[in-house]
Amino acid sequence: MAHPKRKISKSRRDKRRTHYKAVAPSLATCQTTGAIHIPHHAYNVEGNLYYNGKLVIENTSIG
Question: Which helix (H) or strand (E) holds 56?
Fold first, then answer.
């Protein structure tokens, strides 16, 4: 198993970790439905599936 020859200081360790951070996802608004969604992803509006402002799968639930 790997074993460090010298101790890595806290400042050196933390300098390496500075690039790991949470990024808020970008959001888009649909021109057809007005729903807020992630760009280039399909999204649900009232049980219907939309992509790029077009209805892809319509909700056909039998009541």
Answer: strand 54-57
Strand bridging mode 48-51 / 28-29:
unpaired
pLDDT in tens, 7-43: 999 999 999 999 888 889 999 999 999 999 999 999 9
- What tokens were used for 35? 């729903």
Q: What pTM value is reported for the model?
A: 0.63
Q: What is the largest CA-CA distance in the chain?
A: 68
C-alpha distance across the termini of the chain, in Å: 61
48 with 40: CB under 8 angstroms?
Answer: no
Tokens linked to 54: 């077009």
Given a contact cutoff of 8 angstroms between Cβ atoms, the answer to whether 51 and 44 are in contact is no
